[in-house]
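Interim report, section 4.2 (structural modelling).
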Amino acid sequence: MLGIVASIIDGILVGSVYGLAAMGLTLIWGVMDVVNLTHGALIVAGMFALFLLAHALGLPAYGALPIVLVGGFVVGVLLYWVSVHRMIGRPPLMSLLSTFAVNLVLIGLGTDVWGTDLFNVPVALPGVSFGRYTFPGTHILAAVLTAVIAGGMYLFLYGTRLGKAIRAVANNRDAAELVGIPTTRVLSMAFGLGAALAAVSGTLIGTLFPFTVLSGDAYQLKSFVVTVLGGLGNPTGALLGGIVLGLIEGLATPFMPVSWTLVIEFAIFVAVLIAFPRGLLVFRR
Amino acid sequence: MRVMNQLSAHARFLVQLVRRPFFWIIGLVTAAFVVAPIIGNNVELREGLLIACIYIILASNLNLMVGYAGYVNFGSIVFFGLGGYICVYLMSAAEWPLAAATLAAGLCVFALAYLFGFGILRLRGPFFALATIGINEAVAAFVINFPPWGGSSGLYLSPELFRQVGGPMQALWVIYFIIVAIMALSLYLSFAIKNSKFGLGLLAIGQNEDAAAVLGVPTARYKALAYSVSAILPAIAGGLYFFKSAYIQPPDAFDLNLSLEAMAVMMLGGQGTVTGPILAGYFYEELRGWLLTSDTFSHFQLVVAGALLLVIVLFLPGGFMGWIHDRWPRLRKVLE
Amino acid sequence: MTAILDIQGLGKNFGGVQAVHQLSFSVEEHEILGLIGPNGAGKSTLFNLINGVFKPDRGRVILRGVDVTAEAPHRMARRGMARTHQIVQPLTGMTVLDNCTVGACFGRENLPLLAAREAAHEAATFVGLGDRLERPASALTIAGKKRLELARALSSQPTLLLLDEVLAGLNPTEVDHMIDVIRRIRTRGVTIIMIEHLMQAIMSLSNRIVVLNSGQKLAEGTPQEVANNPAVIEAYLGDPKLAEELHRGRRHG
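Predicted structure of the assembly:
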């Protein structure tokens, strides 16, 4: 019994990081109605940034976070101008393909450099023990940092001018333009923010599990499942959805081989969508 | 009486297609594919054209879903792989002859796609796109855990089976010609659908699905039909391809990258066109061949595919044919 | 004259807002029924309920004696019901003729492609687009797009036509042309339900009018009866511009 509770708690901890990743995806989706298929590559970028910064510069693992946050934002803005800007207003197929193409290029380059080897960034942190069960320190710290970053994002969205501008553009772009908001610049920043969240979640995941260049796909799929569970454009929903997914994973993985986890998640994804074509918690804009 | 009327309507439809110049252009292209490698017994050219054919088949059939109906199928490779597995399994375990096995592969995949199609096609846009990737992964995961199909080690075909087509050397030629035939069929299928009522319905769905439904297009049925019809020829091609390789395993059969290359080829040639896949398929095969010989980077071709796709989507969304049609508008009716 | 369409006790709720409530009326064959009401009264929602886009929470839709409540939109098209949209929905990548051909192919008569193209040609010319058949739908003016919307609906050979503000956004000349087209459509035997804000037009075109307010039927009757109905006048007084229109309509109707 205690074992199941332990699995649940651990699932919630890890799930919160999935939620953070999904927040990036759902933010971009909600603000500019673009599905960012470069999301997976950004997560991988965060993972490898962690590796490079930790090994090359000898930085303590969590010190990489601020760097990845800023770097991810910059890369995101760049990506917006390269692959998204001209796709706004065009049929959704176009932005799907353009962001997907960038993903292909990035992952392709990544496999050229790092192949498909497994990378690991061991982080030595004491865990918290209850009787026979130990919660890894990395899991706990990841969840705490997720809360901090998510909290920071809320403060930003509701407390700063740029944050309010982003919400205005998400609500009604034309109206925002009319009141003088430079909507294109705001969109690029929103994309940068979404990318930063993706990258930072990748860094956190890197402290939890080993990874390869191809890991992005799995986490991208998880982000989509979470987004669907939490409702499009709903950051709170994304966080909650991530926790739910983590819970499901925590409960299911002791009972089945790892290769089936993705299939289960995909099945949930499809099943939820068929039943609720707009996601479980619909966010009314 | 009604059946006779329907048959004669279909016959009239086909006759009307035969009179179009494009019908003969497809025939010429097919003839070129057949004749070119025969001259001088050019085995290298044959192998290159075989790959080009595979790309053309995949891109052409992908066009039915993506180019006509506007539904992005990222995981279309699942048809190819599943067809391959069904064919190889039937030939090795149940000792079916090649013809029967490939036809069975085509039919089974068609049926499965039609059944699953109704469910998945309720998803729109990016959800559908991701679901198709998921389907590919799910089928691959299933096969890996399915011992009768060799699990993760795959299935081998005994060389004896090549005697059916006249021995190992001749087999390569026979299979090549059959694949060229499948390519021709794919092109004719795309051409016929584009000029049919079914195709008009698909195009309407691709433009505005809700408006199409109000106009009377039976959207659910048409989408499922497009999805399943687009599965048949890739499935048969898969059967033939893996028969030729005499070996099939999950990473090769359900290689998502091939799906993505097919998407890039389709977009490069011009989505919604019939000629596009021909031009782009050939071009991409040449490009890929050049890349493979001049670079030791195994995944560089993916970078190129991605970069090509990006450039097309950003600057030339109509692909080759879009540019050609803009430049010479009168070709629009001739070269579809 | 039999009732071609019978609406019985229709109700629809959207997240707490009762968009349509206890709505009942019938439409006689070959008549033009006007549907008016202040903004947000539920008129377009009603069309969506009739045509299968939304499923009603309560009530029934009876078409020529057959219960067609909540049937899919494409089935309704087969049953001879066509509609236009308030915000035009052209199939932008296709030509005017192709747009109409879609209607003809999948409409009441389910025509094969060649016959459909002829029917489409006829419908498009009837509406006044005969000179623009090969142009892409995206290249049309707003008036052209409105005509296309109508031509496409007409191509389905409907027996019942639902028009949602076909006159909105048109200049007086275009309005006159459309009114003439609508009259000629009725002469061909098509029953028409029109949502319209242009009071003069709807007063002069309609045989009968149904007035909606806040999702409920406020009044029903001939244009004269409705225009002199105090409850209707009061409902419109909340919207001075429309009240003015109503007054003008009374004088002309």
